Each structure stands twice: as C-alpha cells, then as structure tokens.
What does this fold into?
Amino acid sequence: MAEARWYVIHTYSGYENKVKVNIEMTIENRNLQDQILEVSVPTEDVIETKANGQKKKVTRKLYAGYVFVKMIMNDDTWYAVRNIRGVTGFVGPDGKAVPLSEEEEKKMGVGQQQSEPIYVTDVNEGDRVTVTGGAWIDTQGVVKAVNANKQTVTIIVDMFGRETPVEIGLNEIRVEK
It folds into this structure.
C-alpha cells in the first residue's frame, strides 16, 4: 500500500473551509478514512493592537485559496477530492497532483499546531508609545524600529538624561495619538 502524503488543492478564494467540510463529508460517505487521513486549512492566531491600545484576537488563513490534504493518491481519492464543489484542481505542473516534500511541509507548517499567537500592531517608526506591561510599564518612548519576526519594537526612552534604546514586545505597548 502506498504512503500517505500531503497534497495542496487550489480552491475558490473564500471557499477553503467549505471545501474542507465537503471533503470530510465525502471521506465519511465513501468510507475513505484509510486513504484520506487529514484535511487542513492552516491558520494562525493573531492579536491585533489598534492605535487606541485595544487588542483583538483574530484567526486568519495562512494560504488563502488553498487546502492541504494528507492522502494516499489513487484514482478514487483523486476523483473524490477533485470533484468537490469549489476545488479548481491540485497544485502541480499541468494540474497533476505533486506531493509536498518533507522540507516544504516543515516550511509551511502543515500538520503542526501554532504555539503562541502572533501580535500585529499598526505601530510604525516614529510613533510615540506607552509601555503597558513588564519592567518598563508606563514608560513613554518613540519607536525606532519594528521587528515583526521577533514580535518586538525598539523604543527610545530618556534614561538618566540620555536617549537609550529598549526592546519591548508588541503585546506590551500602546500607540499614543
């Protein structure tokens, strides 16, 4: 028996969750549980911070227009997935299904759970911010740099009469107007 691999399916934009549900129903109706093992619409939790300091947790899709399916590729599974309403085809040359490599799976986070939410803020260099938590609470400063990968900002604070750069987490600041 062949090994199950991850494949990428292209869908109409906005249909990712509907396609996922329809594939799961098809698996159940056609008893394909041993051939189509997992269906995934990768998402990430993001905490957005507005300029007024209000925080909101939002789940957003990582790959809009795509659904990932771990399956054993054969005529039955290909046909079952390809004919789901909203599916435009498999990703691969000339629409031929090509499985993801292990490196691509890791890089795209397929089949993995996100551990911490990502903080997104509309803070920019030059903005005046107030620190809302940690050792620097209630300190005001000006943003010198934003590091989205590390989820931090570097702010300039006045300490002992000198400008000093301090790195603060995005979840610990509020932008002042």
